[in-house]
Amino acid sequence: MKKRTIYAITLLCATIFCGCYSTQRVVSSRAFDNAVNSVAEEIGKAGFTLVDVQHDNTKEQPLSTRSHAIDNVPSIQSAGEVIQTSSFSHGFHGSWTTDKTYTDTYRFTNDEGETMSYAVSYRTGLDVQKNMVYVREAYVSGCETSNPALHDRLCGEHSPIHRLNSLEKDTTAVL
After folding, report:
1. Considering the entire predicted model, what is its pTM?
2. Residues 115, 108: contact at Cβ < 8 Å?
């Protein structure tokens, strides 16, 4: 009987201390912020100034299962909560939920009155052990320019916004 009790206690301790978890390389919120700021700087070098950022979060299916239209900015007004701000920040400053897709739309203008906007959609995750929010996936979900001659340079596949499609995974998270 004593041998059985010791075995049960050992098994219980092993289960508690060796719980199942896995780690994965992910993008930190800081790296995501830096990438978004870098894109804004590049667009600024093309003569455009950031004038507005809209934040939207909706409960949607994962980005990896959706088609991604690059030439059409999603209708931010029609779905979910819209937060308008003139500061350059994204949705990490509120509460985080991992079942939501966040879409931030950045609008720029230049001295000639031309406009450019792009939207980036992303999903977050939460590492409870590190108390850290991270980006699980991100994708440019729309881009448009008022002047078609600027579209390829600002929205085309070699434009700065597409850096957001392949962010470097800079940290690990416990899943």
Report:
1. 0.68
2. yes
